[in-house]
Amino acid sequence: MENRTAELEAFVHFTELADGETDVLALAARAGEVLSLLFADCTNCYYALEDGAWKLKVYSSDLEAAPDLLASLKAGLPLDTPVFARLMQTGEPVFVDAWDSEREQIAMTEVYQSVSTYPLHVDSTIRAIFALGLSHLSAHQQAVFRSVGRSLNLALERTETARRLTAQRDLLRASNEELEAFTYSVSHDLRTPVRHILSFGGLLRRSLPGPLGEKTERYFKIIETAAAHLNELIDVILDLSRTSRRPLEVSRVDLGRLVDAVHKELGVTVPNRQITWQVAELPTVMGDANLLRQVLVTLLSNAVKYTRTREQAVIEVWAEEQPQSWTVLVRDNGVGFDPQYQGKLFSMFQRLHSQEDFEGAAVSLANARRIVTRHSGVVTAKGQLDEGATFGFTLPKVDLTESARLTDLT
Residue 212 carries which DSSP code? Predict the structure, then answer.
């Protein structure tokens, strides 16, 4: 029980000293400080494997009184140094109660009667060794040393994991930026050939004598329709790229006012349609008003488009409150979709309905997802064939003081 209590106390000491620390050598120093606080007259060392030798990187201040020993340890100990070799062979801590500097092949260490070593693993490989020198090592002190060693090992593993995640995030961000720049450049470059296709197609039509035959007219129509569709694709790709590149301009956004404006604009475009709008009270949230408007335009215009086969279309808009977020939902009684293809809905150029039945570039939902993701939210979709669909997105509840954080999201 006494040893267990000592282990817990050592763990607490280390946790308090190492709180928030991510530098490997600083963590090793914190572990040494814990031992120095708990043990009198102890020497603690942190060795890292470098250039085929165990080199001293962090040490307690008492070693400065032995400059020759300190210089020797910094220069590095061979891999076959007995106490380290035993540790490498077993992968377990090694405790030497009757220290013999000649037998252990570490000169100028006669002052120690007891030496303890702890292997520090990363990915199941020993990357460093934590060592403690004392005049005597009791069972109580051994338990404390084990506890500090375990705590240091866990901290080093967390640091390594965080380092890898940061590196992967930076690589992904760089790749995304490169891809977006490439997309933007290519989309711009495609403008000229498409313009040439349309221009020279028109010149060719006008240069042909007499009335054109039905087959020739159909060929020209195919050229013009295909070029127009390509122009539309270029527009949406450029829009998607701009959405990703521009910083968020965060402010209070009244979703109710946005929805009211959007559905009135959509109503003007389909004056002969019978559409019942059922819009519940919507919250005011923090976000980029222009980008959130794009999301709402996408969801509401899709609801209008996919209900046009209905004599009486019904489009509902409402919000549901959760402790940390709002969920905004748009439901329609349109053609719906097959749930097995739900995963394709928010992907680029993925269509669940033919171009002939429902026009569009199949990019708007992908753009909406990107906008919502930049606001730390998620998009959702539920539906059944011929039974309508419900699309939604979440937005976190954030204070004005947190708005600056949103601008950094990518």
Answer: P
Contact 329, 317 (CB under 8 A): yes
- pLDDT computed for residue 78 by the predictor: 95
Instruction: Mean pLDDT check: name the lowest of 8-12, 23-27, 61-65.
Output: 8-12
Beta bridge partners of 383: 389
Name the residue among 314, 332, 331, 326 with its Cα closest to residue 254: 326
Q: Is the pTM of this model over 0.90?
A: no
What's the rounded Cα separation, in Å, for the pair 317 and 121? Answer: 54
The answer to whether the beta carbons of residues 375 and 304 sit under 8 Å apart is no
Whether 151 and 15 have beta carbons less than 8 Å apart is answered as yes
User: Do 158 and 258 reside in the same domain of the chain?
Assistant: no
Q: Which residues contact 101 (CB under 8 A, 6 or more apart)?
A: 107, 108, 109, 110, 112
- Domain holding 283, by residue range, is 248-410
- Please report whether residue 236 resides in a domain: no
Q: At what angle do helices 139-207 and 214-245 cross, to 10 degrees?
A: 150
Please report the pLDDT score of residue 405 as a whole number.
Answer: 47
Which residues, at least 6 apart from 221, have a Cβ–Cβ distance to it below 8 Å? none
User: Residue 27 in contact with residue 160, Cβ under 8 Å?
Assistant: no
Report in angstroms the alpha-carbon separations of 298 from 125, 275, 301, 363.
51, 17, 5, 10
SS3 29: helix
How is residue 67 annotated by DSSP?
Answer: H
Cβ contact 371:291 at 8 Å: yes
Residues 386-404: tens digit of each pLDDT: 889 999 999 998 753 344 4
Output DSSP code: residue 408.
Answer: T
Do 259 and 163 fall into the same domain? no
Looking at residue 29, its amino acid is A
155 lies in a domain?
yes
Last residue of a domain, one of 168, 202, 235: 168
Q: Report yes or no: 248 and 375 within 8 Å, Cβ to Cβ.
A: yes
The 8 Å CB, 24+ separation contacts for 182-186 are 183/237, 183/240, 183/241, 184/238, 184/241, 184/242, 184/245
Does 288 map to a domain? yes
Q: How many domains does the chain have?
A: 2
Instruction: Count Cβ atoms within 10 A of the Cβ of residue 47 and give its class: 0-12 exposed, 13-18 middle, 19 or more buried.
Output: buried
DSSP string covering 276-301: EEEE----EEEEEHHHHHHHHHHHHH
